[in-house]
Amino acid sequence: MNTNPVFSLNIPTKLMFGCGEIKNLATEQLPGKKAMIVISAGSSMRKYGYLDKVIELLKENDVDSIVYDKILPNPIKDHVMEGAAICREMKCDMLIGLGGGSSIDSAKAIAVMACNDGDYWDYIHGGSGKGRPVKGALPIIAIPTTAGTGTEVDPWTVITNTEKTEKIGFGCQYTFPKLSIVDPEMMLTVPTQLTAYQGFDAFFHASEGFIANCATPISDLFALEAVRLLYKYLPVAVKDGRNLKARAKVAWGSTLAGLVEATSCCVSQHSLEHAMSAKYPELPHGAGLIALSEAYFETFKNDCMKRYMKMSEVMTQKKSNRPSDFLEALALMKKECGMDNLKLSDWGMKEEDLPEMVSNARDMAGGFYRFDVRPLTDEEVLEIYKKSYK
């Protein structure tokens, strides 16, 4: 962060946070009268009654709804375009993303394409995207049932173009949700492994945003509290998913990390992961980040000494005298969450793929490299991949 920072703050999302807050969907003034509810292709939203609850609360608020339920864990452009066409045909005037980050991200992208012509990739900056300006978007409501992406309070959406093997983040003023309801009671059913993957995604949003060269005093406040909460409570939530206090603390940590995303930015660790899960879409984003994390943060330990030590202090509540304290705390956190022996090969990745990943990371999602504390070389990237591969 610059010694004399200059920054602006504009987060236009109304956030309603807390156990039972989903009830407000029945009484809150909403930005439309017919919603497309975007959910994943999985069964959890129906199995646990979350979809029915949202539909019923909307009815109480005199709002009609339809459901689009094809979203994949790594959402794809084809579904964005199909969802937008249905949205226009059915004359929906707002989007509701219900579920994990993939559903909310997809709702944001569909909201854009419901109001803009052409192809979604026409508006993407980076890779083969054309970078056209977005003229507007339908209003978005975010209702997360997982704690990880923080997309409920930031403008970002990450979509994969399967034809180009490109996974790229995008956001603009129109993709901030108008309303977000974060109810930890709707997160009690997340499986153990996914709880860990998602929680670490939030942790890296916060820690990356803290070491980014665009960090601000505001993002630092959000980041350090997110790091503290997630280090303390994510292992508890992983071990006991019914622990509502732990779920609420992790949910708040994730939302804070989303605020970091809205006021700072991720760094190149996310570029490296996007290159992996673009080629291997079965790889969970959080798992990829976990696998990369120790080798990645080791690379910058002498460039961010004070910031590493500060993160270590909020994590361990002990005085830190060396940046390696943060790396040791991170390794312990991974172990306590059962994430200390992830194998990228379990998702089909091969060691001979790694040189291709180096070029893909820079060509496809290289925007994150701009926010590194110093330039990262391709040789260093390859070494990170090699150290992370099992």
TrEMBL record:
Coiled-coil region: none
InterPro entries cross-referenced by the UniProt entry: ADH_Fe/GldA (IPR001670), ADH_Fe_C (IPR056798), Alcohol_dehydrogenase_Fe (IPR039697)
Domain Fe-containing alcohol dehydrogenase-like C-terminal, residue spans: 195-389
Record-linked Pfam families: ADH_Fe_C (PF25137), Fe-ADH (PF00465)
GO function terms (MF aspect): alcohol dehydrogenase (NAD+) activity; metal ion binding
Ranges of residues in domain Alcohol dehydrogenase iron-type/glycerol dehydrogenase GldA: 12-184
Protein's name in the database: Iron-containing alcohol dehydrogenase
Provenance organism: Candidatus Phocaeicola faecigallinarum
